User: Fold this.
Amino acid sequence: MGAEVTIACADGRFTGYLATPESGFGPGVIVIQEIFGVNIVMRKITDQLAGDGYTALCPDLFWRQEPGIQLTDETEENWERAFELYQGFDTKKGMGDIVASINHIRNISDDIEKVGCVGYCLGGFLAYLTSTSSVADCAVSYYGVGIEEKLDESNNINGKLLLHVAEEDQFVPKQAQLQIRDRLSKNNNVTIHTYAKVNHAFARIGGEHYDHAAAELANKRTSNFLSTNLVG
Assistant:
């Protein structure tokens, strides 16, 4: 269903995985990767969104370090490399790449008027940042890591933001979750759902902490959210 495309940005060109609906072009959704790159998990999510009627694009945000990398969560070696890439990631440049991806998807067709984003882990953090910079019409964050460090930017949230928080997230401590809820629950543009007794990456099919019930509920809420804010 999908294909590789080339995206131009301020300091170069990088690739992304683009999937489009069979019916033509629907509202845009940027799928923002985990720390494992644009791997099979991200591609399947992108394909699923296209199947739901969206023009979906998953950009390679690690291209400055290692273009085209596709890791899994199944080996220690892959985990080590994923954390190296995460630690070497430049958030400011990554956000520039997301803006370039949004512009790319808007330029595909005049029929694409609205663009949202859905991010996971690192991508969940970046999805939050898109909502504070008004570069997307709406944003969904799955277990975003590091949001508590950027709460000062929450006053800039204009579009709708949906957060999926794992209660037992090993990378987002309970105190950080409390800070996020206390600050963002006061914003009428933000909806926060916490999932009891599940860990980080509970929605990653095949992952160690995958929880079918929690994933199904979160994905249903995401589907309704995107439909409301992008389709109307």
About this structure: The beta strands are 2-9, 12-19, 28-32, 55-59, 115-120, 138-142, 160-166, 190-195.
